[in-house]
Specification:
It is a single chain. This protein is mainly alpha-helical and about 80 residues long. Helix content is about 60%, strand content about 0%. The longest helix has about 40 residues.
Length: about 80
């Protein structure tokens, strides 16, 4: 290190500084990513999924048993949809 000129010493110090800054940014990035990962996992455990209502379910939405046959149900559904515009 004693035989290095002034310009070489400046370049060496700038290189070490750049390496330190890059290392710092990488370490902070990893820490933030890990914290965000754990925060997202806590939020995902709160989600609620509802069961879809099946069309083939013999129970109507009001809870009583449907008395219509399949053909009558299709006819009622077609009437409710109406003609296309």
């Amino acid at each position: 290190m004693k035989k290095m000129g002034f310009a070489d010493r400046v370049i060496f110090i700038l290189g070490l500084t750049l390496a330190g800054v890059l290392t710092f940014v990488l370490v902070i990035g990893v820490i933030v990513a890990v914290i965000k990962f754990y925060m997202d996992n806590k939020e995902r455990t709160i989600q609620v999924q509802s069961d879809p209502m099946l069309k083939d379910d013999p129970m109507s939405p009001s809870g009583s048993i449907s008395t219509l046959s399949e053909d009558e149900e299709r006819q009622v559904n077609d009437e409710l949809e109406g003609p296309p515009n």
